[in-house]
Amino acid sequence: MTEFLKTVANHYMLKAVEEASKTGEPASLPLSRYVFCFPNHRSSLFFSRYLHESFNGPCCVPSTITIEELFGLFSKRCIADRTTLLFRLYDIYRKLSLRTDKEEFDQFVFWGDMLLADFDDIDKYLVPADRLFSNVRDLKEIEAAFAGFEPEIIEVIQSFWHNYKPVNTAEDGKREAFSQTWSILKDLYILFKRCLAKDNLAYAGMMEREVVEQEDLNFNQLNYDKVVFVGLTAINKAERNLMSRLLLDKRAEFCWDYADPLLSDPKSPMSSASFFSAQNLRDFPNVLNKEELNSGLVADADRKYSLFAVPSGVGQAQLARRILQSWKQNLPKFDPFRTAVVLPDEHLLLPMLYAVPTEFDKFNVTMGYGLKDTPVSSFVQNLSALQEACRLHDGQVETFYYKQVQVLLQHNYTAAIVG
């Protein structure tokens, strides 16, 4: 079995050597005229490693970017971070809201994240916003007609409408507030984008839409002869538009990881996946031949798995530790670089990090760790609870509740400070 990224690296290594033999330049130099576009930076790191191994020595590593960064090459705007977007959206929402009970920012964050995700999808899929928001408004008015339906009927409706909010479960005031929120969506979307554009900022979908809506997109500013798209999945309409225009200009090549029969057989259990893979192959032909793709397939006889019953998350981490140690000691060809530990829950990250055997001194962590799960967060929460429950006398703090004092004193940070 050959990894997909290694197959891509070998393909372009051979192509570079062939081009260099015609021009007399160093073997890897032709790759400097390519830019490789990956779904994420982690893929590009593995690709660069495999490319170095293919040349078996020093080589010219080509530029690698993500699809979002590719759009950035055609735009003067900067992608704003989530916090900036939320505060800007909140300011506009407060001005447009018809509600008398204006939400505070911490109450708005949940809805703000949903709105940002919706606006991002609207732009990435090039949806006509005017028509969409009028349809959404009509849909919300239609939902009011279901207020008297039986709970069983509402459950059926909910299975079709993911964000459906049955109004008969809310009080009259909340129902009106919900309707008012939906009524300002169109203006909120327009003014939010206008606010960002004024400061040359954007969110990812906004940037992608602006780029593909340019009629005279100048590909000469790429500074590369070819853009090679590698292993992309879930391509949105804006990305498909840019890829099509690059292909039409003969500046794009595509490497798809579609060797598995499950991704190509319309009658397979993954028929929906085969539909999209067939569409991608039809619109963007694969430069990898069948032999190269099949080199990455794992034979059925080589696919092995074991099931273990473990009663707790921490127990799973400890079991993973024992399995890794066993593989390290008993498998002659065991390669940590080709080994992955997939966690079902982000809360298992710390137990797993503590469980990693000491002989694995280097490993890559590709998942985030929430601030709310850190000791800093628990320390601040304990300190806030202490202050909120204190008793005052003449405006001065008089006493604290002893249990909250104990919790704070037992915290790791307090012990570290006090010594």
Polypeptide structure, described:
- The protein is of the alpha/beta class and 419 residues long.
- Helix content is 53%, strand content 7%.
- The protein is built from 18 helices and eight strands.
- It has helices at 4-23, 41-55, 67-72, 82-96, 105-124, 129-144, 151-160, 172-183, 185-198, 204-212, 237-248, 271-283, 290-294, 313-330, 349-355, 375-388, 402-409, 412-418, and strands spanning 34-38, 63-66, 78-79, 201-202, 226-230, 252-255, 391-393, 396-399.
- The strands form three sheets. A four-stranded parallel β-sheet has the order 2-1-5-6. A two-stranded parallel ribbon has the order 3-4. The protein has a two-stranded antiparallel ribbon with strand order 7-8.
- Helix 2 (41-55) links the parallel strand 1 (34-38) and strand 2 (63-66).
- Helix 1 (4-23) crosses helix 2 (41-55).
- It is globular, with a radius of gyration of 28 Å.
- The chain starts with a helix and ends with a helix.
- 18% of the residues are buried.
